[in-house]
Amino acid sequence: xxxxxxxxxxxxxxxxxxxxxxxxxxxxxxxxxxxxxxxxxxxxxxxxxxxxxxxxxxxxxxxxxxxxxxxxxxxxxxxxxxxxxxxxxxxxxxxxxxxxxxxxxxxxxxxxxxxxxxxxxxxxxxxxxxxxxxxxxxxxxxxxxxxxxxxxxxxxxxxxxxxxxxxxxxxxxxxxxxxxxxxxxxxxxxxxxxxxxxxxxxxxxxxxxxxxxxxxxxxxxxxxxxxxxxxxxxxxxxxxxxxxxxxxxxxxxxxxxxxxxxxxxxxxxxxxxxxxxxxxxxxxxxxxxxxxxxxxxxxxxxxxxxxxxxxxxxxxxxxxxxxxxxxxxxxxxxxxxxxxxxxxxxxxxxxxxxxxxxxxxxxxxxxxxxxxxxxxxxxxxxxxxxxxx
Length: 389
Ligand code: GLA
Prior knowledge:
Strand order of the largest sheet: 1-2-3-4-5-6-8-9
Number of strands: 9
Bound molecules: alpha-D-galactopyranose
Order of helices and strands: HHHEHHEHHEHEHHEHEEHEHEH
Strand content: 5-15%
Mean pLDDT: 89
Low-confidence stretches: 1-41
Structural class: alpha/beta
Number of domains: 1
CATH architecture: Alpha-Beta Barrel
């Protein structure tokens, strides 16, 4: 059947089903059918947007090790940029001082080189997923400034240095700010003060001279956080340090955030002469328990509540359409600013993998990505792809 016929059938189905809100299992099949056809005709995100920006995805360990059937083939076809979801974070690269684990990251580097994929290292400095020893002196007390700086430099030299010329970009610093624009009270900040960012960029520029260097954070649409990020970029530039882009993580929800605010941030960062990128895009279709959990503070883990897990048995046709519409609205903005936006990375390949299933509470069923639990493209995939034409 032709794609157009599929679409017509889909539309008829939507109307006649009167957009049932809570669907029984199987409702998702409607958009799967449309999408399967799309894939059969060979459409791919990376080709569709090749004149606009890189299209990326974050890969789990299972995926990197090719233990999830079909995923790496899909990845090679759909994406031209990759990020490790977890495998390059400090706790996995250097869990014990001086003991480095490169087996999984090596695989990702090889896969990316083989498939001509732009690889982003994530991340050199963060307050989460960093082992305690980094910040301690061996007696349970805080490490000294000198010791912590040395550890940071050594870590960056080893990790970024190992992949010099092979990993094209690094998220140098992740999440230094609170939503109100003040400094996050992390051990980095407590021990080193504000200039820890300066140091991290200095070390990264030496260890990986040809890699792009980024500052990455969530909720950057918030005006106070936007202004504080602008200040960080300017302070690096004033010191003659290289910062190539601001990464807007992009963990969003249905009709969230306010797109005008997001667009203002894209403009503000672009005006600094750096690139802008969406580095961890996903759109949760689930209700947020409270405004606290709209960002990406992974320490929140609330009790599972039935009413907050409405699509456990399948996504309603209505919500499937809303997800597609939300993606379309975002991509319209991205395309308007394609001169400064160089990459859109989804935080995951498929809905089975997404962290959103377990945050801010465990064991929910979310649908935030363009590919479903069987790696089949969804209605949202089709909608995004159509924008590129
Ligand atoms: C933040 C981090 C990512 C990831 C997500 C949640 O956005 O930058 O590495 O941990 O939270 O999965």
